[in-house]
Amino acid sequence: MAKTILAVDDSGSLRQMVAFSLKAAGYQVIEAVDGQDGLDKAKKQTVDLVLTDQNMPRMDGLSLIKALRGMTSYQRVPILMLTTESGDDMKAQGKAAGANGWLVKPFDPQRLTEVVKKVIG
Amino acid sequence: MTVDMSQFYQVFFDEAEELLAEKEKLLLAVDVSAPDSEDLNAIFRAAHSIKGGAATFGFTDITEVTHMLESLLDRIRKGEMALTAEHVDAFLAAKDILKMQMDGHRQGSSVDQDAVSSVCQRLHALSQDSAAHAGSAVQPAGQPEKRATGTASTPTQAASASRSFRIELPEVPQRDVDALAAELGLLGEISQSVLDNKRSVFTLATNEKLDDIIAICSFVLDPDDLKITEETASAVAQPEADTAPPAMPESEPGYGFFEPLKSEIEKKDTSATEQAAAMPQSAHQEAETAVSVEGKPFGRRAADKQPATQESSSIRVGIEKVDQLINLVGELVITQAMIEQRTGSLDPILHERLLNSVGQLTRNTRDLQEAVMSIRMMPMDYVFSRFPRMVRDLAAKLGKKVEFITRGAATELDKGLIERIVDPLTHLVRNSVDHGIEMPDARRAAGKDEAGKLILSAAHQGGNIVIEVSDDGAGLNRDRILAKAKQQGLPVSDTMPDAEVWQLIFAPGFSTAEAVTDVSGRGVGMDVVKRNIMAMGGTVEISSAKGYGSTMSISLPLTLAILDGMSVKVGEEVYILPLGYVIESLQPTPADVKEIAGQGQVVKVREDYLPLIPLHKIFAIEPRYTDPSQGIVVILESDGKKAALLVDALVGQQQVVVKNLESNFRKVAGISGATILGDGGVSLILDVAALLRSSRQLTAAPIFS
Fold first, then answer.
1. In a domain, B310, yes or no
2. What pLDDT score was predicted for residue B470?
């Protein structure tokens, strides 16, 4: 069965690009417009991978990661941060929050699918 | 897998445009002396989001401008720099530049590169000023100022430069090379050499990011012509080695994992310190290169709250899809009308159930039609939102003070109309600021508030939308308009009612270049305004009181796709008259019809003689009646002028779905469109305004009124 990915980003164009590329690579994609929306959608259905932007209205990526890690069903689900914050600070924060890795924006569809394949096959 | 990125461009442009509009709105509202930190954050996020998208989709020119904008805004929102009016002006100018660049990508329109670089320089200068003045800038005196296009937070100069770039220039004049060398020299140590084909090559040792180097180069030349490679041999010890990329940005994977994947998934460990300690050693090989990543120093903070939350409850659909839907519903309405007409002759007792169902179909169709039409509706805010900026700029230019108020921005109007109303409305607003509102001292002398009020409002009235532009300025000057009209040879009299005097400013060429008075200036292009609005099926009215201001009131139908029409018959043909033009219909007595030598006939309706337009003559049809006293005349009014249209009979009144004739056939004089009738026949919709215009040329109507 196709693996499901939750893609959380407040930018519609980015989200569309992510969803399109991953769908083309054979994944199912659930889109969410911010952390809160992502959390709501994650609660409805446990996914195989979460990709989340960091800075979003309502709830940012770090808070989302922390909230997900607090749910038993999401303790082992890989979470990647999509971010332009390449600094150590952001990565340390992401790691502390429970992210498994990061992907730097801007990225192209190839790189995205490459990374996703590495994580969930 | 290759993905065609261009398919996402439209979404990006739409999104960016929304963000730009939001940014402009916030900038215009911001209180420079005490900016709200939420607003500053929102402005920053808008620039930041656009940059993120532009970088992803490869619009480097947009990325560059937003990058500079973003770094300035970042420092302002962090309190490292005070917001000044200069900043606001520069940001507004940058917004225009970004819009131009986007249009350039989208429509292939030309981009004024001079304007782009002038804005870039302005932003650059501002960031430099502040670097010098801001208290927090750690900058030993005498040392060259840091080029603050990027991260302002790493002030250490390249004493121990971590990176070495080889910058290959295209063939450019020597002075450009020198200028660039001087600029880049501020970033770190630079050496210069010349290739055999006369191109210069710089080697730059610096701590700065690649982006900053490109940004600086782009002042002088097109970054696309540059060939920048990073020389990996930079063996200089670097304390924060993992923030400085040891490899070329393009070749980096740009991602990483905190721990090897398998173990990460198996083991859940939330201890931050332990993970942080583990990071450098146990990181995946890829992580090592990726930590550094490309020189994108800024995080993608949230986009604007408003568009984002709206997005969660709306979808973007191409306008063609909506139009197709509307078209299909139009066809459905026609089919439904056909069924209704055909079942109309059935016995209501025998076919009760069928007729009930048809009745229900009629209701459902009407509801569906209304619902579908509402998809095309857009709030007037789409138009209104562009005016605060214009009014601000214009008032500043003229040295006037204007308080701009909008009302009813949520009022909805068809998208097609909303786009066409922009120009006329712009004209009216500009006229109000330019000619309506007086200079502050004149206002004070007149006992008014120094700041003039300009109110733009929209409201629904029946099937129309009424848009008003009103100011509390000097008002129209009746005497001057009359004098001007006489001078231009227009038929006027001193006893004309005000309403007619005001209409004079819509006369073509009423105001000319030499007109300098506040009044005559109002006529600039007013005939065009009126023509545009008439073409949308609307009307313009003026009310004005000397010393108290004036109001221009535009009334438009809500949509162009459906029209209330009256069908009339001439011979075997059925024509539709838009109901808005129809005043009454009557059968004149033979005594009321008079022949005017060489000018056709007139009909006496109560006290007025109206020119008679025989429809059969215009379209060369064989009518049933040529004598007005046997047929029916329909009294039509457009532009304040009336005429009587002679037809054979009235058929009825109905809503018709307008089909464009021009796009399906060609433009036909006197016809504004076509529609399909309930019986499946095609009927032409008459262009009443054009008919009346042509009749006025034939008959000297004013003589009889």
1. no
2. 92
Q: What's the pLDDT score for residue B295? A: 34
Which residue on chain B is closest to A101 by alpha carbon?
B257
Cβ atoms B209, B226 nearer than 8 A: no
Q: Tell me, yes or no, if A37 comes closer than 8 A to chain B by beta carbon.
A: yes
Quick one: pLDDT at residue B264? 42
Task: Say if B572 falls within a structural domain.
Answer: yes
CB B561 within 8 A of CB B656: no
Whether B697 and B590 share a structural domain: yes
Q: Is the pLDDT of residue A49 over 90?
A: yes
Phi/psi region, residue B598 (left: phi>0; alpha: psi -120 to 50; beta: rest), is left
- The domain total for chain B is 5
The boundaries of the domain holding residue B620 are 562-704
Q: What is the pLDDT of residue A38?
A: 92
pTM score, two decimals? 0.47
Instruction: Tell me if B56 and A13 make a contact (CB, 8 A cut-off).
Output: yes
CATH code for position B206: 3.30.70.100
Residues B403, B534 within the same domain: yes
- Whole-number Å distance between alpha carbons of B688 and B671: 8
Asked if residue B444 and residue B465 are part of one domain, the reply reads: yes
Rounded CA gap, B87 and B62, in Å? Answer: 19
User: Distance between CA atoms of B645 and B628, rounded to whole angstroms?
Assistant: 9
Nearest CA-CA distance, residue A45 and chain B, Å? 18
Closest in A12, A94, A106 to B56, CB measured: A106
A49 interaction partners in chain B (CB closer than 8 Å):
none
The verdict on residue B474 lying in a domain is yes
In a domain, B301, yes or no: no
| ipTM of the shown complex | 0.75
Residue B164, φ and ψ in degrees, nearest 5: -130, 125
Q: How confident is the model at residue A64 (pLDDT cuts 50, 70, 90)?
A: very high
Chain B residue with Cα closest to A108: B56
Q: Are residues B582 and B543 in the same domain?
A: no
Question: Which of B268, B276, B294 lies nearest to residue A75, judging by beta carbons?
Answer: B268
- So what's the pLDDT on residue B536? 81
**B475 and B537 fall within a common domain:** yes
Shortest Cα distance from A9 to chain B (angstroms)?
A: 9
State the DSSP string of B184-232: HHTTEEEEEEE-TTS-EEEEEEESS-HHHHHHHHTTTS-GGG-EEEEET
pLDDT at A68: 92
**Contacts across the A-B interface (CB distance below 8 Å):** 182
Do B330 and B395 share a domain, yes or no? Answer: no
Taking the domains of chain A in order of start, what are their residue ranges? 4-120
d(CA B595, CA B598): 9
For A4-120, give the CATH class. alpha beta
pLDDT digits (tens, 9 = 90+) for B377-417: 888 888 898 888 888 888 888 888 899 999 988 888 888 88
Q: Which residue of A has its CA nearest to B244?
A: A87
Both B251 and B353 in a single domain? no
Domain of residue B445, CATH code = 3.30.565.10
CA geometry: angle B197, B202, B203, nearest 5 deg: 130
CB atoms under 10 Å from CB of B191, counted, come to 11
Low-confidence ranges of chain B (pLDDT < 50): 132-160, 233-251, 262-312, 512-523, 698-705
Q: Mutate one of A14, A58, A90, A118 to test the B interface: name it (highest B CB count within 10 A).
A: A14
Q: Verify that B118 and B172 share a domain, yes or no.
A: no
